[in-house]
Design brief:
Number of domains: 2
Largest sheet: 7 strands, mixed
Distance between the termini: 25 Å
CATH class of the largest domain: Alpha Beta
Structural class: alpha/beta
Strand content: 15-25%
CATH topology of the largest domain: Rossmann fold
Radius of gyration: 21 Å
Strand order of the largest sheet: 2-1-3-4-5-12-11
Number of helices: 12
Shape: globular
CATH architecture of the largest domain: 3-Layer(aba) Sandwich
Length: 359
Amino acid sequence: MKKFLCGLFAFILSASLLTGCQPPAPTDAGASAGPASSGETQADKPADGERIKIGVAFASEAQYRFKFDKEIMEQKAEELGADIIFQYANYDATKQANQVENLISQGIDVLVLNVVSGNMVNLVEKVRSQGIPVITFDNTVEGAQVDLNVDRDNVKVGRLQLESALEYMGPDGGNVVLVKGDPGSAVAQRISQGYEAVAAEHPELNIVADQFHEAWSPDKALKTVENALSANNDNIQAFVASADSVALGIVPAIKAAKLDGKAFLCGMDVEISAAKLINEGVMTMSIWTDIVSGDQRTIEAAVKLGRGEEITPDEIQQIGGFDIPVLLVDVMPVTKDNLHQWLDEIAPAGWATEEEIFG
């Protein structure tokens, strides 16, 4: 397994580096996108030298990474001479809608929206109708035209997780529990699409439980896994979780069944607790998203859109029936074999200390 994981990391990292050396692929849409088409004229945009005001609406303050997203975005905004305002909805759709109204009242020029739910078409349309470009961030809104979407390839994440579980289990496969995120999240849905694709290709996989969990609830995820273990007499070889939040929630059940270090367990985000469990051998891997590059590119695009300038996406994707310009954020697997390298060379400063993970 160690040999597989080392090879997997080397392959992903090499592919990522090669991709970064190449220019963005041409798109059917001419590889460019303009500001919101709401009837606002260029004269309504801030004049040259005037500071752009960016509103950022995050789904939750509890998610560990958003603290770092905020710091990186603030630093980039200051570097580009822009002001930035943050709001956190704590997975309350009504609260997020009210917060966006508040940001509009403060005169924002562009909105970066990490939606509570992918079903917030009306909110996006309302913002764009007022001439304010919308960038969806780390989630998408199905059925709404937005000016830009910034996200990892979540289908790829799902494929990578389940394919890694297959390699861990060996050619005979085994019993697998899929511990998914919030059903209203496009992130969770697209990761699920990755699972479905791999499962269709590998009949040796036996999916014994397959469940979404509202608000990425660790408690609900724990109940799902407890039920699956009971129904299968603890005969489960892999637990594939869409994020660290739900992966960490199910660890007590895995330990109670004495499967820690024996069954495959993965997540996404490489939170401190997850990184520690990877070092201890309880978790097999977690997927890391290059948030530094993603955050910086988001703010660069926000400033351009706020000034009415065109942006150059990496590709155009069909999302909810619309052609959406997309900036893709790189992902990589973090395992015990590359955990030190990830912490020293890749994770943003302050994400974790050596003592927190290895102490």
